Protein: Rab-like protein 3
Amino acid sequence: AGVGKSSLVHLLCQNQVLGNPSWTVGCSVDVRIHDYKEGTPEEKTYYIELWDVGGSVGSATSVKSTRAVFYNLLNGIILVHDLTNKKSSQNLYRWSLEALNRDVAPTGVLVTNGDYDREQFADNQIPLLVIGTKLDQIPEPKRNEVLTRTAFLAEDFNAEEINLDCTNPRYLAAGSSNAVKLSRFFDKVIEKRYFLRDGNQVCHFS
Structure:
């Protein structure tokens, strides 16, 4: 909760800053237009739905079962954390397993003595992207320290990492490394949804 998911989704879909974000109750949906394999002969335009699931933490089974409805048939996961809040990044492990329906111990701690069981993601076929928000709120002298602390997240999730300020569109400017990473992620999401991978063969279903 409060990591900036709604601001991020608005920026991704509308290319505008969300002026007065409010708490998300349940889930809100927005749509992004994405050019798959842009600049190649295979380029094709797709609509991508981004489901902004509310981050309210509750131990009650009813809260989790309500969120589970939004995880059905997902084709990609963007894990969002607040760079100014260390617990926020640690909680990504629990949230990711919940979304992948592997959360066997909902109140358990998934990070033990600094070690993370990567086997939980060894066979994951769903594209993941890790996005850290509120970069602007970290003093310049401390940024390297914070980004070094969170860098392991991308490795643990076998995902690319983007760090940004959701109140400044320049972090996703066309041609920037962040924009390239984002485009690659959405390409993978589209392939997960519309293509079947069999070894090196990619079969398209119309």
Q: What stands out?
A: The radius of gyration is 17 Å. The beta strands are 27-36, 44-53, 77-82, 111-112, 115-116, 128-133, 160-163, 195-198, 201-204. Residues 5-195 form a domain with the Rossmann fold fold (CATH 3.40.50.300).
